[in-house]
Design a protein that fits this description.
The complex is a heterodimer of chains A (433) and B (301). Chain A is α/β, with parallel strands linked by helices and 433 residues long. Helix content of chain A is 42%, strand content 17%. Chain A has 15 helices and 16 strands. Chain A has helices at 2-23, 44-63, 83-94, 108-121, 134-137, 151-165, 180-196, 216-225, 236-248, 251-254, 266-269, 296-309, 315-337, 345-352, 411-414, and strands at 30-37, 71-78, 100-103, 125-127, 144-146, 171-175, 201-206, 229-231, 256-259, 278-280, 356-358, 363-366, 372-373, 376-382, 391-398, 429-431. An eight-stranded mixed beta sheet of chain A has the order 7-6-8-9-10-14-15-16. In chain A, strands 2-1-3-4-5 form a five-stranded parallel beta sheet. Chain A has a three-stranded antiparallel beta sheet with strand order 11-12-13, covered by helices on one side. In chain A, strand 3 (100-103), helix 4 and strand 4 (125-127) form a beta-alpha-beta unit. The longest helix of chain A has 23 residues, at 315-337. The termini of chain A are far apart. In chain A, 52% of the residues are buried. Chain B has a two-stranded antiparallel ribbon with strand order 1-2. In chain B, helix 2 crosses helix 9 (196-218). Classes of the chains: A alpha/beta (433), B mainly alpha (301). The interface between A and B is large, with 42 and 47 residues. Chain B: It comes from Variovorax paradoxus. Chain B: It is a multi-pass membrane protein. Chain B: One of its GO terms (molecular function) is transmembrane transporter activity. Chain B: This is High-affinity branched-chain amino acid transport system permease protein LivH.
Chain lengths: 433, 301
């Protein structure tokens, strides 16, 4: 009887040992990256440059040896093909055998839809571009991370920069795209603004169709109302068209424009954007950031990207590089923590949850709810001889800690509790001049 | 104030209606002759816009004359739209002429998707426009609001000329009268010795040029991005459904109605702006199920 017990005990012990050996995965030859971006449709304005940047970066990264010899092998999904097809392709890629990691998506709608899928399949997903703060606030995920800023950070910083640049205004109008981002960003902006400056009167809330080709009725109405400030969180072709039509009719001279996503349009618009417009960078990646003028990595990337595509990197490009650097950085750190053993998905997720990394701008930190704390850069346009389009000066950097609610709180409620003292927070600092 | 508001909304509405009419005109013409909604018409709009922008970008360093530049919009539209339209008919739709209308619709949809890809290959995903031109034509102040002459006078003017020109062509030229005959009854027209195939190609070329003209006239004000063609085809479908399929005067009236409704909505109920074209369409179709200007069709056995 005794010998039988000993036999069972030995058996169990050796089995357990074998099981841990199996659980600790072998080093794979490659990491399959399931990546999604808009290759078609209006959002390809952001998606196409980001894809070029990713391919460029991965090529260099693999040439330099990858993650200790393990190469990245990207597969792309087009987000422009509609939600059903997107999700089924996403599932297929996420369930492929081998080491895999997902970097998806641009659309906030898709991010909301894919986060529970990634969680179910126990595959790590980096939300590389979408801004909706709701996805990580409404549910706690183990495998879902966002390596860029969320809408709350972007909008609170926009209000702060507006109040610092133009403290005395009385009326404001908004022209946002009629879809989730346009509506959600306005809700946060409005509540933040009314908390910090309750006497502002909102004179018009216009939500033209996403992809609208004509804003002349909106411009006419704004000219008749003459608001002190006009806000638009539009981007891409919509922002180009709106700004061009507004500028041709002099609206940008009579109202102070606030354009948190203008970074992606400035280069194309040239003289259509006059000096004095408040512009944001959806994070702090800006090719003309004076603090990074001599940063070898940022400079080399900007030059190479400009040479490859003919344009300067926009915010989506910066977000893509951040996501790739966070993912590969997490692998490297988990490998080091694990004494050279290839990490399990759980170990990688644990590493990500407190990862510190850098894209091509200032350092970023991920926190335990999976949200990155990335500061925001805002500036005011000026004409500059160095470029044929407006550049941003009077730049200010707003660190993310003061722009975002603590873990577990919801942005919509949190912004209502903000106090005007926030404007004097010493962590806000000027960048350059 | 109320009157001023109405006036301002009218100006915006008419300018938008002008573009909408030009695009719908081509769509409704094809609908009349072939009895099919040509989804690829959205691509013709996009191609017109993109190619006009390319032509303008090439011309701008060489000339400052507004006449030449405006003229180039028409040239780009006529050449690109006309050729592409004729090609679509010759190369594609002719082979599906006697098939199920649903199949024809799907064929035009397939053509649309392919053309959209070609357009992305040629012009990429970055927004394209030709902003300088509209500024060159100057501005006019009306009730304290600045309008561009380009949208205040030029676009509605072109739309009216196109309407009058097309009406004249259809009533007084041989080719035009042949088109009318084919619209009325294809077999009878063929029996009377009209070369229906030639009329078909002609209609497609004409419609293509009109659609492309809509795009070319938009590009000084609108940034063209992939997917814009799809947007336009949906709105102009609302126009021709409101008007009655194949109705030219109807398309003019429906464009004005929809344009006005949309700009009035921006002033009074901005939330409704997006759905306004479709609300108008539903309202009209509830009362007149075949559209505003539909004619009684002879029953065919």
């Amino acid at each position: 009887m005794k010998s039988l017990a000993r036999f069972v005990a030995w058996g169990a012990a050796s089995f357990a040992l074998a099981a841990t050996a199996i659980a600790q995965p072998q080093r794979p030859a490659e990491i399959k990256l399931g990546m999604s971006t808009f290759m078609t449709g209006p959002a390809s304005v952001l998606g196409a440059p980001a894809k070029t940047a990713a391919d460029m970066w991965i090529e260099d990264f693999n040439a330099a040896g990858g993650i200790d010899g393990t190469k990245l092998s990207p597969t792309w999904i087009d987000e422009g093909q509609g939600a059903d097809k997107f999700l089924s392709e996403y599932r297929r890629l996420a369930q492929e055998p081998g080491e895999r990691l997902m970097l998806s998506a641009i659309s906030s709608g898709y991010c909301n839809a894919l986060a529970p899928v990634a969680e179910d399949l126990k595959v790590i997903n980096v939300l590389w571009e979408c801004s909706t703060e709701k996805v990580l606030e409404e549910r706690r995920y183990k495998y879902v991370f966002r390596t860029g800023p969320n809408g709350t950070m972007e909008m609170v910083a926009a209000v702060l920069h507006l109040l610092k640049t133009k403290p005395d205004f009385k009326t404001l109008a908004v022209v946002n795209q009629d879809y989730a981002w346009g509506r959600d960003s306005w809700e946060i902006f409005r509540n933040t603004l009314l908390a910090l400056k309750p006497d502002v009167k909102i004179v018009a809330e216009l939500f033209p169709k996403f992809g609208a080709s004509d804003f002349s009725a909106e411009v006419t109405r704004l000219q008749a109302l003459r608001p002190d400030v006009v806000l638009s969180t539009a981007w891409g072709g919509d922002l180009d068209t709106f700004l061009r039509q507004a500028s041709q009719r002099g609206l940008l001279k009579s109202s102070q424009f606030v354009l948190p996503l203008a970074d992606s349009s400035l280069e194309r618009l040239g003289d259509a954007v006059p000096p004095g417009v408040i512009v944001g960078f959806v994070g702090d990646g800006y090719f003309a950031d004076p603090e990074f003028a001599n940063d070898p990595e940022a400079r080399a990337f900007v030059q190479k990207f400009k040479k490859r595509t003919g344009a300067y990197p926009n915010f989506a490009v910066y977000h893509m590089i951040q996501a790739l650097k966070a993912a590969t950085g997490a692998y490297k750190q988990a490998l080091a923590d694990n004494k050279g053993q290839w990490p399990t998905t759980e170990q990688l997720a644990t590493t990500l949850r407190k990862l510190e990394y850098r894209g091509l701008s200032r350092p970023i930190r991920l926190r335990e709810d999976g949200q990155a704390l990335q500061g925001q850069l805002y500036g005011v346009t000026v004409k500059d001889a160095s470029q044929p389009f407006p550049v941003a000066r009077q730049l200010s950097f707003y660190p993310a800690d003061i722009l975002t609610p603590p873990v577990g709180q919801k942005s919509a409620e949190w912004v209502k509790t903000l106090k005007p003292a926030l404007l004097k927070n010493p962590q806000i600092r000027r960048v350059g001049d | 104030m109320e009157l001023n508001l109405l006036l301002l909304a009218t100006v915006d509405g008419l300018s938008y209606a002008g573009l909408l009419f030009l695009i719908s005109l081509g769509l409704t013409l094809i609908c009349g002759v072939f009895g099919v909604i040509n989804v690829a018409h959205g691509s013709l709009y996009a191609f017109g816009g993109y190619s006009a922008a390319s032509l303008l970008a090439w011309l701008l360093p060489h000339t400052a004359s507004a006449v030449v530049l405006v003229g180039s919009l028409f040239v780009a539209a006529a050449v690109v739209g006309g050729c592409l339209g004729a090609l679509l008919e010759r190369g594609l739709l002719r082979h599906f002429q006697d098939r199920d209308p649903v199949l024809q619709l799907l064929v035009t949809f397939a053509a649309f998707m392919m053309l959209e890809d070609v357009q992305r290959m040629v012009w990429g995903a970055t927004p394209v426009n030709a902003g300088d031109l509209a500024t060159r034509l100057g501005t006019t102040d009306l009730l304290g609001v600045t309008f561009m002459n380009y949208q205040l006078a030029f676009i509605p003017g072109v739309a009216l000329v196109a309407y009058a020109g097309l009406q004249f062509l259809l009533r007084h030229s041989t080719a035009g009268r042949q088109i009318v005959a084919v619209i009325h009854h294809r077999e009878t027209a063929t029996a009377l010795g009209i070369n229906a195939a030639r009329v078909g190609t002609l209609t497609f070329a004409l419609a293509g040029a009109l659609g492309a003209l809509g795009g070319a006239l938009s590009v000084p004000m609108t940034s063209f991005v992939p997917g814009l063609g799809a947007e336009m085809i949906v709105t102009s479908f609302a126009v021709i459904a409101t008007a009655g399929l194949g109705q030219i005067t109807g398309a003019l009236v429906a464009s004005v109605l929809i344009g006005m409704a949309r700009s009035l909505a921006v002033y009074t109920l901005p939330e409704l702006e997006v759905v306004m074209p479709y609300l108008m369409m539903v309202a009209v179709l509830l009362v007149r199920p075949h559209g505003l200007f539909s004619v009684t069709a002879a029953r065919r056995i």
